[in-house]
Design a protein that fits this description.
With 254 residues, the chain is of the alpha/beta class. The chain has one domain. It is built from 6 helices and 11 strands. It has a 4-stranded mixed β-sheet with strand order 3-8-7-9, covered by helices on one side. Strands 4-11-10 form a 3-stranded mixed β-sheet, with no helix packed on it. Strands 1-2 form a two-stranded parallel sheet. Helix 5 links the parallel strand 10 and strand 11. GO terms for molecular function: transferase activity. InterPro entries: GNT1/Glycosyltrans_8 (IPR050587), Nucleotide-diphossugar_trans (IPR029044). Keywords: Transferase.
Length: 254
């Protein structure tokens, strides 16, 4: 939030873009009030009901499906979802003007729809970045190859209640998708390339998974990695410097 709202090198310049913190039921009032004091719009949501067969051995993923609530936020035309373990290197405002995100797409290949799933909307929008885990991990080329799967840590969508209902209907069917990576697997099934709503590819310079020094040097705007304890040394140093910059800001701000 510091990067989005206050850091001179990365804060948004377009004041019409809202910065939201989607807070699940486990987030304390103290934490939510702290976010509000920083100028963040806190959106309180209920956890998404998860069917019995959907589980993972990673306990910290227990609330992953809560992020699906963004598909219900129809008061917004477009939402850019960013996981918290993301380092932002430059302003993100311009992504909302990219040609890939300004228009809705018609539903195609209706023969791919399954009779036991609710019908998705006739027009929709969802865009993401190919996951470099399928393009060599840290050995990926720059620009990286497009792959058959995307990361659910950075994506854009147009909220639609029918789309949210469709996601829940898919979740109700046993093993319709592999639950190991939880909501990422669900979204990759719903927006699969060969399906009725194939996801759009965002420009590679907006986000990188399995990031390298080369990604940052090439101008990638966000890198998705837990840089406080792993990743290339240059990127870890950038994370620490941003953290110190943030602490200095709040020390004087308060």
């Amino acid at each position: 939030m510091y990067s989005l709202l206050h850091a001179p090198s990365t804060k948004a310049n377009n004041t019409l873009i809202s910065v939201l913190a989607v807070c699940s039921e486990s987030v304390s009032e103290e934490q939510k009030n702290l976010l509000r004091s920083e100028g963040v719009t806190v959106v309180e949501v209920k956890d998404v009901p998860v069917n019995w067969w959907i589980y993972s051995g990673v306990s910290r993923w227990k609330e992953q499906f809560t992020k699906l609530r963004v598909f219900q936020m129809i008061e917004y035309k477009r939402i850019l979802f960013i996981d918290a373990d993301t380092l932002i290197t430059r302003p993100l405002d311009a992504i909302f003007s990219e040609p890939e995100v300004t228009s809705l797409a018609p539903r195609i290949r209706d023969s791919k729809l399954k009779s036991d799933e609710l019908s998705p909307p006739k027009e929709w929008f969802f865009a993401a970045r190919s996951d470099s885990g399928l393009a060599g991990e840290r050995d990926h080329p720059i620009p990286p190859f497009q792959t058959t799967a995307f990361s659910a840590g950075f994506f854009m969508l147009s909220p639609h209640p029918q789309l949210y209902a469709y996601l829940l209907s898919v979740m109700s069917h046993w093993r319709r998708f592999d639950p190991f990576t939880m909501e990422q697997s669900l979204l990759n099934y719903v927006f699969r390339r060969e399906g009725t709503m194939p996801w759009r590819e965002l420009n590679w310079k907006w986000s990188a998974t399995w990031p390298t020094e080369g990604d940052v040097q090439a101008g990638v705007a966000t890198v998705h990695e837990k840089l406080w304890n792993r990743g290339p040394e240059l990127l870890q140093r950038m994370w620490r410097e941003r953290e110190q910059e943030m602490m200095n800001f709040y020390g004087s701000y308060r």
